[in-house]
Amino acid sequence: MAYLVPDTLPQAELLARLQSALLAKLGPATAHDESYYDTFDARLHRAGLRLLRADAIYRLEPRPGAPGGRRFGERVERRPRFWWEFPAGPLQKALRSHLRVRALIHLATLRRRGRRLLILNRDQKTVARGSLEEVALLNRGRRRPLGRVLLLEPLRGYDAELDRCSSVVQAWGLVPQEDGILPAAMQAQGLELAGYSSRLEISLEPELPSGVAVRRILAHLLWVLRQNEAGIKADLDTEFLHDFRVAVRRTRAALGQLEEVFAPETGRHWRERFDELGRRTNRLRDLDVYLLRREEYRALLPPALHAGLEALFRELARERALEQATFAAHLASEAHADLLSAWDAFLRAAPAPADAAAPAAQEPVIGLARRRISRRYHRLLEIGQAIDDRSSGRALHRLRIQGKNLRYLLEFFASLFPAAEHEHLIAQLKRLQDNLGEFNDLRVQQEFLEGQLADVRHLRPAAAGAAAIGGLLVHLRTRQRKVRSEFAATFRRFAAEENARIFAANYAPGRTAGAEG
Amino acid sequence: MRIIALYSIKGGVGKTASAVNLGYLAARDGERTLLLDLDPQGSASFYLRLRAPRKLDTRRLLKGGKRLVRSIRGTDHAGLDSLPAHLSYRKLDLALDARKRPRRRLRQVLAGFRRDYDWLFLDCPPGLSLGAEGIFRAADVILVPVIPTTLSVRTFDLLEMFLAKRKLPRHKLVPFFSLVERRKRLHRDIMAELRARNSGFLATVIPSASDVERMGLHREPLFCYRPHCAAARAYEELWRDLRARLDPARTAGE
User: Fold this and answer.
1) Residues A165-178 as b or e (16 or more Cβ within 10 Å = b)
2) Helix extents (H) in A393-496
3) Tens digit of pLDDT for each residue in A379-428?
4) Distance (Å, whole) CA A133 – CA A29
5) pTM of the full predicted structure?
6) Are residues A239 and A154 in the same domain?
7) pLDDT in tens, A189-198
8) Does A68 touch chain B (CB under 8 A)?
9) Is residue B20 within 8 Å of residue B81, measured between CB atoms?
10) Final residue before a domain boundary, out of A134, A157, A188
11) Is B80 part of the contact surface with chain A (CB cutoff 8 Å)?
12) Complex ipTM, two decimals?
């Protein structure tokens, strides 16, 4: 636990009190610069962890205020950005499960200077370790003092002694920092720990006019878009673009599925603008996905074809660099800034009180939500039930789009419905979508590789590249057949009576009450 | 998790000093280490400046589980925890005798530490009791300090016979010479004779040294006050031997 020492308590006085009241023994001087890292969406923080680097040693450990767990430490001279850049071992394995494709971002560097402390009992046995330190934030070579800090670390089996120390120092006016000193350091830089999440958490009240509610949803999505722009421009990791694209898709879905709250030409206008923005990212995302699949593809192919695969990946990486630069330039363009500021202004403007062209804008949002979700759900069942083993891939694709739209609607309006049932339905839907998604994914991969095959002379060496592509195509086709064969059972599970019952009970239109379940 | 029992029928052979110093060295290597002081005299606990936790006793020891874990204390040395001794351990045999399958109980209790620790060191009381049999079954290695004197040699032979009679695994027995005075001819002769008879003796020899005796004054492992003395170097060698024997993969990688 870290305690902030008030300025009114002079250092000499504090030391004297520690020695007399807590039998503290002063240890050697300590001097560390500690750098903290996490992903943009704070995956480590959310998992109750923190990652820091001091004296070239990386430590992954439970963060202050989180329950205990395993600690990992390892000397790493470089400064890895991704888990796979850490040396193989327990630390890498632990990071892998949390970071996945996300890059580590530097949060803050703290300069800590002070003395080690041992708190002893009458047997001269250590009952707590600690230190008394001056902490400063290092920012581009400049030091910014954050204050004096007393740190007390628990020692197994001496909780009672630690509690006693804690109450003694608090009586002296020291202020416990439950979450450690990092939050204060972040605040000093105008930043927030775990400020970003790609999850939609929009809270709506059932009686809110639909026009207001939908604008609130869209404003949140705009915030997500803006949050991710810097990471895309700096090309930190592929998740920035992914989250950006999801926000664009959700925006388009909201404009399309909930168009009745806008005047018809307004909705169409914005949808077209966001369609265009989304299209600009398609190729870049495709390339990201293939490059992320590198290991998976290597494992699929016999070693003889690896050289050809590398030729393909070299070409893809070259093209990706070009696409990335192009899209980064677009994000920095005036046209893009104009789009977002006009969109922002539109969302901020209050909807007209009685707009004949937007009949639903004044309706309580619960009604809109039930109506639209119900319609999507029944349409999904209709399309799905018409699909049999002979149906084309296009029919499955249509079903997948319906599923996506239903999923987005469920997420937009999550706060209006009982959480347990809502999550159950989303989980059921997700299973169906996973099957459809993989099927579609395999189709897109095959088309992409066939495209590469048509233009194979770009690859060096071309013949090896073509062979590798051929090998992948065979595998993808086999896998796609298997996924297709699993569709019928997956859909039957989704369309089961149990789900229909939950649906009717919560989402059937015409009910007047809100989320009373 | 590796379990090392420091055991001897005879007392005063250097069990406790070995347990404390080896435990310290394991922790220094970054291993999560627990030292269990099973000797009611509590000498290891004394060396580590620990008092018996109020709620610890034989019953709690044999029950194991979360409540026993709560009696574990962090020592002054990073990575080394200890379960202190309790005076009631002198009745360990009585308590064991009252249980079903008394010889297997300790093994079950120790299994509860598997998640938290890489190495367990047991500082065992002397004597051939029911408790000792439990220790033989639970440990991966029974490390036996042997002073090269005729009496010590006799008790070591006794131990081997006992294990054979009870059909206990004799390969677990790893003897090493302790409290050796090289200038004594008798020590040298007995060591040579025993090595000829029993190839299992470790190459490392722990000398008799006043530095080691002073552990009782300093109340800390030898390495905290005389890290470079001959005895300290011998313990380091002993630990390397032991680790190579039990964890060959890890040692080879260094």
Assistant:
1) bbeebeebebeebe
2) 393-412, 419-454, 462-494
3) 999 999 999 988 988 999 999 999 999 999 999 999 999 999 889 999 99
4) 9
5) 0.80
6) no
7) 888 888 898 8
8) no
9) no
10) A188
11) no
12) 0.80
